TrEMBL record:
A single BP term in Gene Ontology: translation
The gene coding this protein: rps17e
Any one Pfam family match given in the protein's UniProt record, by short name: Ribosomal_S17e
Keywords: Ribonucleoprotein, Ribosomal protein
PANTHER family hit by this protein: 40S RIBOSOMAL PROTEIN S17
Domain of life: Archaea
Protein family per UniProt: Belongs to the eukaryotic ribosomal protein eS17 family.
UniProt GO cellular component terms: cytosol; ribonucleoprotein complex; ribosome
GO molecular function, one term: structural constituent of ribosome
NCBIfam families in alphabetical order: PRK01151.1
Name of the protein in question: Small ribosomal subunit protein eS17
């Protein structure tokens, strides 16, 4: 089985993809920097998990 992500991470990521789809790429490092600019995220760990999920979804969409 794969890793299970929290609903907060999935929900937040999908909302951000809907709003800023043209800014996100399939590169994790780029997505981290974009997240710093477009969203206020409380912790580094949460930011990284959201960026990772966004990267995963962008790869699926391509």
């Amino acid at each position: 089985m794969g890793r299970i992500r929290q609903a907060l991470i999935k929900r937040t990521s999908m909302e951000l993809i809907k709003k800023y789809r043209d800014l996100f790429t399939t590169d994790f490092e780029t997505n981290k920097k974009v997240l710093e600019k477009v969203a206020v995220i409380s912790t580094k760990r949460l930011r990284n998990r959201i960026a990772g999920y966004i990267t995963h979804k962008m790869r699926q969409l391509q």
